[in-house]
Amino acid sequence: MLYEKEQLLLDKQKELIEFRQLVAQTIASQKRIEKQYHEAQKEVKEWQDDVDKAQQEGDIMLVSQALNRQEYYAKAALDLKAYLDEQTVQVETQKRQLIKFESEIIKLEIELEIEEEIRTIQKLRKKSKSSQVGKEEFRQIVAEAIASQKRIEEKYNEAQEDAKKWQRNAQLSFQKGDEALACQALHRKKFYDESVIKLKSNLDEITSLAELLKQVLMERESNL
To answer: Is the pLDDT of residue 2 over 70?
Structure first.
């Protein structure tokens, strides 16, 4: 089961790299179209100025030529605006998909980390109860328990900060009127809230074990 999850994580991480590249390409395409659109708008204005100038001078031929160019760029600008709107929708859709994809991977990563720490706790409990454990080995068990405690505490604090960050992101998205992005942010916040609960349970357990092991070690050393 663990191997399957680890392999799934590796596969998803590879897919994430590819999807990020796709999003980057879509954004680059959007920016190119936006630039072309603004250039077309600029041409429309410049040719309209030429039309106005030619009309003031009474040059009918020049008016016709400038008007044709103005109409050409006006149509180009209209087409580019429609294409730009399509690309903008696609970019926003892919960004939301990316957030969801990243959430799935982060969730899987934390699940694996929690499972690893649970196995560490179980292993330490089992080893500490063995009557065959010598002084130096027991000290190592205590050191491992303290190290595990610090790792879990760090992950617990990070999960709390991430939950706060996504709460802020959700509020900002709501203020901007982007309900879809706000919902995505709240979804990720919920995931981190759940992770905080799991990590707190692990932290309490390993803290209790570490304190117990330190006490046992002190008693062992005082009896030497």
So the answer is: no
